[in-house]
Design goal:
The structure is a homodimer of 211-residue chains.
Chain A lengths: L8 H19 L4 E2 L1 H7 L4 H9 L11 E2 H11 L6 E6 L3 H7 L3 H4 L2 E8 L8 E2 L2 E2 L1 E2 L3 H7 L4 E4 L3 H13 L4 E4 L12 E4 L4 H14 L1
Chain lengths: 211, 211
């Protein structure tokens, strides 16, 4: 592996897709894959894959394709998956609970350390083995725990007020599911998830295919 | 508007982002926006926006920027949002319930007509005014109702078995949240949502910024 220089965000956004497809291949005990076959599974071209991976060093051997496990491991390393990330979640409604129950986090090194909610009916409930805490305890918790990622699954109205608490609590990044784009300071990273965007894409494709 | 020819999927995937940002600007009563300002809000370049929109006809006037409302309306039209899409959802666990409760669907013309689950405890419950039906009634329902989109929020193991039922029931598209990629026939469109991919991107960015 060569030393890494800053990489275009478009490449970074493709790496998780590579990682997912390689994980699936590994689960099927497939040891090597040609660049053409991998490209097909990724809905892209062999040259795009080569170009993306070349930014991180040299993978694969001309004529032999890629070694599934070692490429997966290397991409995992690039994505930082070998270092555990500690997370908290704020907003334990249906979406929050669904995320806490998501089976693949722990396997990939993402560890949900605590879950918070404002609703006295929800506080004290258990979700995936975690007792939901009162959001009043959030500041204290952040003072005493180093958290990498805060997940926001509150309604849109209340999402913004947590940003300051997270910045103050030295949280490194926000993974935001509230239907509002959070724009934060340079002190914290934000990834806004807009679930419904793929529905709009689907709407376009339906009209093109069936009309 | 010119007659439309097939558009690259990368452009189609950007249109929902344009739509979201324009909706937000409209809500703030902003009537016009320069191409530079819009590009900034979209994290892209003015020339990329111009290039994308030019594929659908001519928008904006040199030197005047874009009219927010009319551009939003036009993009909504391209995305097919002016025609109501009828949907069903299968799998009324936490994620399913969260999606049924999502506030922005109806406003954009997406109408959830029925919700199904296999669990006798969940069947009969109400979510956002809809009584959850037994999944045994799904085939019959599809025979008697024209459905555009079926949302799958079941566990991975059970997602695949619904695909045939949807194809037979002339459902046009599947919006799949089960953590498995569904590969279907030409008779049905599939959009697989991989929520955790943006978390892996975030993991990369954390390691770059804080290490």
């Amino acid at each position: 592996m060569k030393e890494e220089k800053p990489i275009a965000i478009s490449v970074i956004k493709r790496l998780p897709i590579y990682y997912r497809v390689l994980t699936k291949l590994e689960q099927k005990n497939i040891e090597t894959i040609s660049s053409g076959k991998l490209a097909e599974k990724l809905n892209t071209t062999a040259s795009q894959i080569r170009q993306d991976l070349n930014q991180f060093g040299s993978f694969g051997h001309k004529g032999f394709g890629y070694q599934v496990s070692s490429l997966k491991k290397e991409i995992g390393r690039i994505l930082g998956l070998e270092k555990q990330k500690d997370m908290i979640l704020v907003g334990a409604g249906n979406l929050g609970k669904a995320i806490v129950n998501y089976p693949n986090f722990k396997r990939r090194g993402f560890n949900i350390k605590a879950v918070f909610d404002v609703d006295p009916i929800i506080v004290g409930q258990e979700v995936n083995g975690i007792i939901i805490k009162d959001v009043k305890l959030l500041k204290d918790f952040l003072e005493n725990n180093e958290i990498d990622i805060a997940i926001i699954t509150t309604p849109a109205e209340s999402a913004e007020k947590f940003v300051d608490i997270f910045v103050e609590g030295r949280v490194k990044a926000i993974w935001n599911f509230a239907p509002i784009s959070l724009n934060c300071s340079d002190r914290i990273l934000v990834e806004n998830v807009h679930i419904s965007e793929s529905l709009l894409t689907l709407s376009y494709m339906i009209d093109k295919k069936f009309n």
